[in-house]
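Appendix B. Raw example, untouched.
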Amino acid sequence: MQEISLPRPQRSRSVRSRALGAVLTAAALLLAPALALAQACENPKVLRLSMIPTQESVRELTLYKPVIDLLSKNTGKKIEFYMPTSYASVVEALLGKWVDVAVLGPESYVIARNQGAAVDVFATYSKKQDGVQEAGPGYKSMLITKKGSRFTTIDSTKGSVMLLVDPASTSGGLIPEAQFGAKVIKTPLKQYFSRVAFSGGHDLSTIAVFDGKADVAFVATHRFMNAVASSKGKMKVDDFNILWSSTLLPQDPFVYRSTLCPEVKAQIAQTFLTLDQNAEGKKYLENVDSDRFVEMKDSNYDVIREAGIK
């Protein structure tokens, strides 16, 4: 008897095809975010570090060597330092992806985010109590004059020569205008003072007032204390009048580029957040007058946005 092969119903094949297609589509949808992340995240062989210009950046090899060594050890990567020329140059470096990890000022951080820099804040210093600088992750902007000068009250500073630090400085630019100008003298700084200039650094502003090259200056409490300490006895806190202080501001944000791979970002964050747990890290913390690092998030800097940076 001849065996007869019956054709399989076409409908069954169609059903199986559709079912298989649905499974593959679902799998693709589930895998898409992971695949996109794998393709999008960056894992460079070299991490480039930078910071806004401060007194510390001039001595960065001494101050930052312990943490650079730890960062290299924990990430397995070579660390290169990018020396900036201004606050804006660090923001430009982040926008251009020339820098992967940076120390920004609160205002320059908000500016960088507003200009489209893909950066996330992960930590900041918790400062030791030192003179006018209180303990913790905050600081203040203050108006200083030299003791013995005629500038002993806010009213007496009208028409004087005043120094700010940088157009993108928080305590040496934004806050003096937003809090002192708008709420205390109720006049734009350029109209109240006879001349307004930028020194380029809190230490330079402090020295200029001490040397009589400027009448008044707005400086950050911790940067002011750094300048006094670095003078090795030439300058003392008692050599200055402090005529005004701002509300408490968040310390400088430490940021990394958002597009770095998650494991790299975790290694960077842990390096800083555990500095107080090893000898090399403690050397760095001592260099920057801090006892540890604390976690920070973007909303911690809303006070800066509210001051006028939109």
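End of appendix B.
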